[in-house]
Specification:
The structure holds two protein chains of two kinds.
Chain A: E1 2-7, E2 9-11, E3 33-35, H1 37-52, E4 57-64, H2 70-78, E5 82-87, H3 94-107, E6 114-118, H4 129-137, E7 141-151, E8 154-160, E9 166-172, E10 175-179, H5 191-197, E11 202-206, E12 219-225, E13 234-237, H6 241-257
Parallel strand pairs in A: 1-4, 1-6, 4-5, 5-11, 6-10, 7-10
Antiparallel strand pairs in A: 2-3, 7-8, 8-9
Helix pairs in contact in A: 2-5, 3-4
Chain B: E1 3-8, E2 10-11, E3 14-15, H1 17-25, E4 30-36, H2 41-49, E5 54-59, H3 68-79, E6 85-89, H4 92-104, E7 109-113, E8 115-119, E9 122-129, E10 134-140, E11 146-150, E12 167-172, E13 181-186, E14 200-204, H5 214-224, E15 227-230, H6 232-236, E16 257-261, H7 267-273, E17 278-283, E18 296-299, H8 302-317
Parallel strand pairs in B: 1-4, 1-6, 4-5, 5-12, 6-11, 7-11, 14-15, 14-16, 16-17, 17-18
Antiparallel strand pairs in B: 2-3, 8-9, 9-10
Classes of the chains: A alpha/beta, B alpha/beta.
Chain lengths: 262, 318
Amino acid sequence: MNIFVCIKQVPDTETKVTPNGDGSYIETSSIKWIMNPYDEFAVEQALLTKAANSGSTVTVVRVGGVKDTEALRTALAMGADEAILVESGDNLDSYMTAKALKGAIEKSGKTPDVIFTGKQAIDDDCLQVPQLLAQMLGLPSVSVVVECAEDGGKFTLKREVEGGALEVYEVNSPAVIACNKGLNTPRYASLPGIMKAKRKPLAQHSLADVGVADSDARVKYSNFQLPPEKPAGKKFDAMDEANQASVVAEVVKLLREEAKVI
Amino acid sequence: MAKVLVFAEANGDTVKSVTFEILGKLAGHDVDVAVVGDMGGNAVADLAKFGAANVHNLKGDNLDKYSPEGYANALKDFIGSNYDYVFAGATSLAKDLMPRLSGMFDAGMASEVTNFAFDGDNFAGTRPLFAGKVLAKVELQGPKPHFVTVRPNALGLPENPTAGAGASNDVAASAGEIRAAIKEIIKGASEKLDLTEANIIVSGGRAMKSAENFKVLEELAEVLGATVGASRAAVDSGYAPHAMQVGQTGKTVSPSLYIACGISGAIQHLAGMRTSKVIVAINTDPDAPIFTKADYGIVGDLFTIVPILKEEISKILS
């Protein structure tokens, strides 16, 4: 099988995010970059699928800035066979990203049997790229996948929807599968894996190389700002058993009469 | 004036509340609603009450249940060049469907806006990024129609909705080829509203100590008609499933009341719940970061406070 994984590099979840000087994006100079957490499940599922189908290869593709290629190296160290990086600026929109991924996959010369992605990137939180990529490649897609079984190119997938309910899909290869947390337990890169990753092929393309132009931009962002801070709230000490009942009664009264939410 | 279509989901006579929020915000525009599959007459009446001029009901083979391709194919044919904007609530279904549909038109889409306005025919929205750590203005360009999904509970319902004609109209639609189809639906453990739609959320953190202990939160939630959530620490410790996780790698929520129990308030958790209208925090650590976001903070042990809270609330609600 030709297995592809699309990954993104994002700021670590513990990063404090602040707007940049002109509000055109965030300040990126002192950020710790990580592989998008949902993409780790995609890489792991690709490696599991490879292990179950001998002769398969896993190609990992990323579109993004080149300040740091940590995410791709991590995927290679986990066991992916080769990597493709499409260089772009920060905050490329979903349409351009999907188009660049499509171009990079086609340029690789391999016809994908399955493409794994994370269900969303935790930077722009758009949840568009997997479905857009599937549409652009003319493939079916299933998103928010929490269980994935494959037998002879036929995938049985559980997609999580509202209230934790699961939709069970059957879809034949080729398809795009967008992975959620809980799908598997991503492996850590071993030391030999990290050493080997350094010698694995990493192709680099520009956006133009993969057929993406400025005119493909669909979303325009501006005015990045911090959300308004709330005024300080009221705090009550109820560590002492003697005043617990009165504190709770007071808070319930405030919820009822001041906040009017119950 | 822009021609706007709102994609709505109807379960019999019930339409998701976010649809009414969107219709309310679109007052003054020429707005139609499209629903795929069967819907009840009361649903049409409700949609009219909130401003729908026409309610188009797309029906055809294999459209009785959701499939990404079937719904997208049917809507693509119906939309054609008839609309400038297509709106939908950011539900599980629409978050899956709308990107595919926008791709069919090579069109742009703004995901999960929390507010929006039109300047003439031009849309401008506000959306949170990085799970709400920052907000940005979002505009769309390129081929029409432009697509927008709106986060539930963000706009609020209009107080005095402007009614529309609500002319109901059946449209024969084709699902086309469906390669990814639902074979079965496994119901969730909870029949409660999903976290993203819930009006009240009671959430537990690491201090819950076990999955069994979530029962104390469920009892409070029962009294309030609330949905139970969890922090990443609680999920990673195996106390709650990921479907319940609130935060940057879980769900971003904005209920009218969020009660955080034994949650310290890691930055990625605060990002996911800070837009809640009123926040109550219960924690033994008076310096826990969660208190900086709380409207009402109770420094105390959740296992003693939550049962008292439940009693007090049931008293005033009964």
